[in-house]
Amino acid sequence: MTWSFCAERRCQAEAISKDSATAFRLAPHKNPGVLKSSHFKDLVLVCDCQAIPLSSVNHDMERIGYEGAALLDRLMRGAPAPSQPILIPPRGITLRQSTDILAVNQPQVRTALKFLRDNLGRSIGTGDAAAAARVPRRTLERLFQQHLNRTVHGELNRMRIQQARELLLHSRLTAGEIAKTTGFCHPQHFNNTFRRHESLTPSRYRALHAAGTPPPSSGLGGTE
Predict the structure, then answer these.
(1) What pLDDT, on the 0 to 100 scale, is given for residue 169?
(2) Strands across the sheet with 92-94, in order?
(3) How far is CA 8 from CA 1, 124, 220, in A?
(4) 44 backbone dihedrals φ, ψ, rounded to 5°
(5) CA quadruple 56, 144, 122, 163: dihedral, nearest 10
(6) Residues 108, 101: contact at Cβ < 8 Å?
(7) Bridge partners of residue 92, in order along the sequence
(8) Could you tell me which residues are beta bridge partners of residue 93?
Protein backbone atom coordinates (compact mmCIF):
# COMPACT_ATOMS: atom_id res chain seq x y z
CA MET A 1 0.00 0.00 0.00
CA THR A 2 2.86 2.36 0.83
CA TRP A 3 4.57 1.50 -2.46
CA SER A 4 1.34 2.18 -4.35
CA PHE A 5 1.02 5.60 -2.71
CA CYS A 6 4.65 6.49 -3.50
CA ALA A 7 4.27 5.35 -7.10
CA GLU A 8 1.14 7.46 -7.49
CA ARG A 9 2.89 10.55 -6.09
CA ARG A 10 5.85 9.87 -8.40
CA CYS A 11 3.55 9.77 -11.44
CA GLN A 12 1.94 13.03 -10.36
CA ALA A 13 5.36 14.65 -9.99
CA GLU A 14 6.41 13.42 -13.42
CA ALA A 15 3.22 14.79 -14.97
CA ILE A 16 3.76 18.18 -13.33
CA SER A 17 7.39 18.25 -14.48
CA LYS A 18 6.48 17.37 -18.06
CA ASP A 19 3.78 20.05 -18.17
CA SER A 20 6.19 22.65 -16.76
CA ALA A 21 8.95 21.73 -19.19
CA THR A 22 6.54 21.82 -22.13
CA ALA A 23 5.24 25.24 -21.14
CA PHE A 24 8.78 26.57 -20.75
CA ARG A 25 9.83 25.20 -24.14
CA LEU A 26 6.81 26.51 -26.03
CA ALA A 27 6.45 29.92 -24.39
CA PRO A 28 8.14 32.96 -25.98
CA HIS A 29 11.51 33.87 -24.49
CA LYS A 30 11.14 37.67 -24.62
CA ASN A 31 11.78 37.97 -20.89
CA PRO A 32 13.68 34.97 -19.49
CA GLY A 33 14.20 36.91 -16.28
CA VAL A 34 10.47 36.43 -15.63
CA LEU A 35 9.78 33.09 -17.30
CA LYS A 36 11.33 30.54 -14.98
CA SER A 37 10.26 27.09 -13.88
CA SER A 38 11.18 25.01 -10.86
CA HIS A 39 10.11 21.76 -9.20
CA PHE A 40 8.99 21.56 -5.59
CA LYS A 41 11.33 18.68 -4.76
CA ASP A 42 14.81 17.68 -5.90
CA LEU A 43 13.89 14.38 -7.57
CA VAL A 44 16.90 13.93 -9.82
CA LEU A 45 15.29 11.35 -12.14
CA VAL A 46 12.32 13.69 -12.63
CA CYS A 47 14.13 17.02 -12.82
CA ASP A 48 17.05 15.95 -15.01
CA CYS A 49 15.11 13.78 -17.46
CA GLN A 50 13.20 16.63 -19.07
CA ALA A 51 13.63 18.45 -22.36
CA ILE A 52 14.56 21.42 -20.15
CA PRO A 53 15.99 20.20 -16.80
CA LEU A 54 14.01 21.70 -13.92
CA SER A 55 15.50 23.59 -10.99
CA SER A 56 14.22 22.26 -7.68
CA VAL A 57 14.01 22.88 -3.95
CA ASN A 58 16.78 21.18 -1.97
CA HIS A 59 15.03 20.13 1.24
CA ASP A 60 17.01 19.67 4.46
CA MET A 61 16.09 16.00 4.83
CA GLU A 62 18.60 15.38 7.65
CA ARG A 63 17.10 18.10 9.82
CA ILE A 64 13.56 17.05 8.91
CA GLY A 65 14.35 13.52 10.11
CA TYR A 66 16.01 14.80 13.30
CA GLU A 67 13.14 17.14 14.18
CA GLY A 68 10.57 14.44 13.37
CA ALA A 69 12.31 11.92 15.62
CA ALA A 70 12.63 14.48 18.43
CA LEU A 71 8.93 15.35 18.16
CA LEU A 72 7.94 11.68 18.23
CA ASP A 73 10.08 11.16 21.33
CA ARG A 74 8.40 14.08 23.10
CA LEU A 75 4.92 12.84 22.17
CA MET A 76 5.71 9.33 23.42
CA ARG A 77 6.81 10.84 26.73
CA GLY A 78 3.41 12.51 27.10
CA ALA A 79 4.22 16.03 25.89
CA PRO A 80 1.39 17.88 24.11
CA ALA A 81 1.47 18.18 20.34
CA PRO A 82 2.77 21.55 19.07
CA SER A 83 0.08 24.10 18.34
CA GLN A 84 1.84 25.23 15.15
CA PRO A 85 3.59 23.25 12.38
CA ILE A 86 7.35 22.88 12.73
CA LEU A 87 8.78 24.61 9.66
CA ILE A 88 12.14 23.40 8.33
CA PRO A 89 13.68 25.81 5.79
CA PRO A 90 15.20 24.27 2.67
CA ARG A 91 18.95 24.18 2.14
CA GLY A 92 18.54 26.13 -1.08
CA ILE A 93 17.81 25.63 -4.75
CA THR A 94 19.39 23.10 -7.11
CA LEU A 95 19.77 25.22 -10.24
CA ARG A 96 19.15 23.68 -13.63
CA GLN A 97 18.39 25.06 -17.08
CA SER A 98 14.78 26.07 -16.33
CA THR A 99 16.04 28.96 -14.19
CA ASP A 100 19.28 29.61 -16.02
CA ILE A 101 19.37 33.27 -17.03
CA LEU A 102 21.78 32.31 -19.81
CA ALA A 103 18.85 30.65 -21.59
CA VAL A 104 18.30 34.02 -23.32
CA ASN A 105 18.77 33.67 -27.07
CA GLN A 106 20.38 37.04 -27.90
CA PRO A 107 24.13 36.31 -28.39
CA GLN A 108 25.52 39.64 -27.11
CA VAL A 109 23.35 39.46 -24.00
CA ARG A 110 24.42 35.86 -23.40
CA THR A 111 28.09 36.81 -23.71
CA ALA A 112 27.68 39.77 -21.36
CA LEU A 113 25.78 37.65 -18.80
CA LYS A 114 28.49 35.00 -18.84
CA PHE A 115 31.13 37.69 -18.36
CA LEU A 116 29.25 39.14 -15.38
CA ARG A 117 28.72 35.74 -13.81
CA ASP A 118 32.36 34.70 -14.26
CA ASN A 119 33.73 37.96 -12.82
CA LEU A 120 31.44 38.76 -9.89
CA GLY A 121 34.36 39.09 -7.50
CA ARG A 122 36.09 41.74 -9.60
CA SER A 123 35.44 45.48 -9.83
CA ILE A 124 33.53 45.46 -13.13
CA GLY A 125 30.76 47.50 -14.69
CA THR A 126 28.68 48.07 -17.78
CA GLY A 127 31.67 49.16 -19.87
CA ASP A 128 33.53 45.92 -19.13
CA ALA A 129 30.49 43.81 -20.05
CA ALA A 130 30.03 45.79 -23.28
CA ALA A 131 33.68 45.26 -24.19
CA ALA A 132 33.34 41.52 -23.55
CA ALA A 133 30.23 41.41 -25.78
CA ARG A 134 31.94 43.62 -28.41
CA VAL A 135 29.09 46.11 -28.61
CA PRO A 136 28.80 49.78 -27.62
CA ARG A 137 27.73 50.41 -24.05
CA ARG A 138 24.43 52.03 -25.04
CA THR A 139 23.64 49.11 -27.34
CA LEU A 140 24.17 46.61 -24.53
CA GLU A 141 21.96 48.64 -22.20
CA ARG A 142 19.21 48.64 -24.81
CA LEU A 143 19.55 44.89 -25.34
CA PHE A 144 19.39 44.20 -21.60
CA GLN A 145 16.24 46.27 -21.25
CA GLN A 146 14.72 44.51 -24.25
CA HIS A 147 15.57 40.93 -23.22
CA LEU A 148 15.82 41.09 -19.39
CA ASN A 149 13.79 44.19 -18.54
CA ARG A 150 16.59 45.62 -16.39
CA THR A 151 19.89 47.47 -16.74
CA VAL A 152 23.32 45.86 -16.87
CA HIS A 153 24.07 47.30 -13.45
CA GLY A 154 20.79 45.94 -12.11
CA GLU A 155 21.60 42.47 -13.41
CA LEU A 156 25.10 42.61 -11.93
CA ASN A 157 23.66 43.52 -8.54
CA ARG A 158 21.04 40.77 -8.86
CA MET A 159 23.77 38.18 -9.49
CA ARG A 160 25.89 39.45 -6.61
CA ILE A 161 23.00 39.44 -4.15
CA GLN A 162 21.97 35.96 -5.28
CA GLN A 163 25.48 34.65 -4.63
CA ALA A 164 25.64 36.53 -1.33
CA ARG A 165 22.41 34.87 -0.19
CA GLU A 166 23.86 31.44 -0.92
CA LEU A 167 27.05 32.25 0.99
CA LEU A 168 25.11 33.63 3.95
CA LEU A 169 23.10 30.42 4.18
CA HIS A 170 25.72 27.81 3.32
CA SER A 171 29.09 29.16 4.47
CA ARG A 172 30.72 30.55 7.59
CA LEU A 173 32.16 33.58 5.83
CA THR A 174 31.65 36.91 7.56
CA ALA A 175 29.63 39.66 5.89
CA GLY A 176 32.88 41.46 5.09
CA GLU A 177 34.36 38.35 3.45
CA ILE A 178 31.16 37.81 1.46
CA ALA A 179 31.23 41.45 0.33
CA LYS A 180 34.75 40.93 -1.02
CA THR A 181 33.91 37.58 -2.63
CA THR A 182 30.88 38.99 -4.45
CA GLY A 183 32.63 42.12 -5.75
CA PHE A 184 31.28 44.86 -3.48
CA CYS A 185 33.82 47.63 -2.90
CA HIS A 186 33.36 47.61 0.88
CA PRO A 187 31.12 45.94 3.51
CA GLN A 188 28.88 48.99 3.97
CA HIS A 189 28.09 49.07 0.25
CA PHE A 190 27.22 45.37 0.42
CA ASN A 191 25.06 45.94 3.50
CA ASN A 192 23.15 48.81 1.87
CA THR A 193 22.61 46.98 -1.43
CA PHE A 194 21.52 43.77 0.30
CA ARG A 195 19.06 45.64 2.51
CA ARG A 196 17.62 47.43 -0.54
CA HIS A 197 17.00 44.09 -2.28
CA GLU A 198 15.99 41.94 0.70
CA SER A 199 14.51 44.52 3.13
CA LEU A 200 16.87 43.41 5.91
CA THR A 201 20.60 43.31 6.61
CA PRO A 202 22.84 40.34 5.70
CA SER A 203 23.32 39.41 9.36
CA ARG A 204 19.58 39.53 10.02
CA TYR A 205 18.90 37.44 6.91
CA ARG A 206 21.34 34.77 8.11
CA ALA A 207 19.93 34.81 11.65
CA LEU A 208 16.31 34.47 10.51
CA HIS A 209 17.13 31.54 8.28
CA ALA A 210 19.19 29.81 10.98
CA ALA A 211 16.22 30.17 13.35
CA GLY A 212 13.86 28.61 10.82
CA THR A 213 11.95 31.81 10.15
CA PRO A 214 11.38 32.36 6.41
CA PRO A 215 12.99 35.67 5.34
CA PRO A 216 10.88 38.17 3.37
CA SER A 217 10.41 37.45 -0.32
CA SER A 218 13.33 38.52 -2.47
CA GLY A 219 13.25 41.68 -4.54
CA LEU A 220 15.68 40.32 -7.12
CA GLY A 221 13.28 40.63 -9.99
CA GLY A 222 13.31 44.41 -10.14
CA THR A 223 14.23 46.63 -13.07
CA GLU A 224 17.08 48.48 -11.39
Answers:
(1) 86
(2) 38-39, 55-58, 92-94
(3) 11, 50, 36
(4) -60, -45
(5) -20
(6) no
(7) 58
(8) 57
Q: What is the pLDDT of residues 65-80, one digit of tens each?
A: 888 899 999 999 999 9
Q: How far apart are CA 39 and CA 121, in angstroms?
A: 30
| Local structure of 219: helix, strand or coil | coil
Higher pLDDT, 13 or 193: 193
Average pLDDT taken over every residue of the chain: 76
Q: What is the pTM of this model?
A: 0.59
pLDDT greater at residue 71 or residue 90: 71
Give 39's strand partners.
Answer: 56
Q: Measuring CA to CA, which residue among 189, 195, 116 is closest to residue 159?
A: 116
Question: How do beta strands 92-94 and 55-58 pair?
Answer: antiparallel
Contact residues for 179 (Cβ-Cβ < 8 A; gap 6+) = 164, 186, 187, 189, 190, 191
